[in-house]
Amino acid sequence: MKLTNKIAIITGAASGIGKAIAKRFVAEGADVAIADLNLEAANATAKELSAKGPGKAMGVKMDVTDEAAVNAGVAAVVAAWGGVDVLVSNAGIQIVHKLEEFPFADWKKLLAIHLDGAFLTSKACLPHMYAKGSGSIIFMGSVHSKEASPLKSAYVTAKHGLIGLSKVIAKEGAEHGVRSNVICPGFVKTPLVEKQIPEQAKDLGISEDEVVKRIMLGGTVDHEFTTVEDVAEVAFLFAAFPTNALTGQSLIVSHGWFME
Ligand SMILES: NC(=O)c1ccc[n+]([C@@H]2O[C@H](COP(=O)([O-])OP(=O)(O)OC[C@H]3O[C@@H](n4cnc5c(N)ncnc54)[C@H](O)[C@@H]3O)[C@@H](O)[C@H]2O)c1
Questions:
Q1: What predicted TM-score, i.e. pTM, was given to this entire model?
Q2: pLDDT for 191
Q3: Which residue intervals of the chain are DSSP H helices?
Q4: Which protein residue's CA is at the shortest distance from atom 23 of ligand 1?
Q5: 135 CB near ligand 1 (under 6 Å)
Q6: Is the pLDDT of residue 204 over 90?
């Protein structure tokens, strides 16, 4: 088990991709804080994962856009377990509109969750990693960190931004033994994507079946969704990587939808 005695905080881990990463980390021996807006769901996930072990999990209420809530959540984890070794900044939402119809409030909300969330959680965790002289920060990017799609101006902007932030952390963190990476998944069938299917069908004037077959999976090599387990495996790779060789890099996990 490569994450024994490691303490991880994963945001947005009550469901979807974050939950799968938490499951993978706990199975590798890590103690994982399930930090989520939804405390009830976070506690339920923590209970489920702790029962399986060998690592343990705890739910932490955290709105990643609220500096005081982020600092309090990280402090609670440090008080309980003594530090933070891995941060997975994963919490995210999707809002789709044509640009000329995009409500400014929605633009700001999306950027706050993805970018302020990544900044605030990193800012709160880095001093604890620097104190230990090691750590790993992982941002949940997207193929949309590298590519664009119609209707997703805010999401594409935010996900591109995470690559820049990660590169800066890789450079600043190096002397303290802290690594930084971005995972860039293709379409993964989670509540976030389920919600988009009817919305995109309506906005683009096509059927839901066409949204899935053409827009979401048309470019993959196997017409398959990326799975939460695919993404969790890459998170584990970055979290457990033994040297600085991969720091600053982003990795696309998309069944061949986007290659570089
Ligand atoms: N599903 C995909 O196809 C896909 C593809 C690429 C990247 N991603 C990214 O993966 C991440 C997770 O997405 P998912 O598909 O698992 O979504 P999801 O909706 O299943 O889970 C998101 C979680 O984030 C939490 N959350 C939302 N706002 C929050 C906030 N302000 N503070 C704390 N927690 C908050 C939600 O409560 C939820 O538990 C997101 O960053 C998303 O952009 C998803």
A1: 0.97
A2: 86
A3: 16-27, 39-52, 67-81, 104-111, 117-132, 153-173, 191-204, 208-210, 228-240
A4: 12
A5: no
A6: no
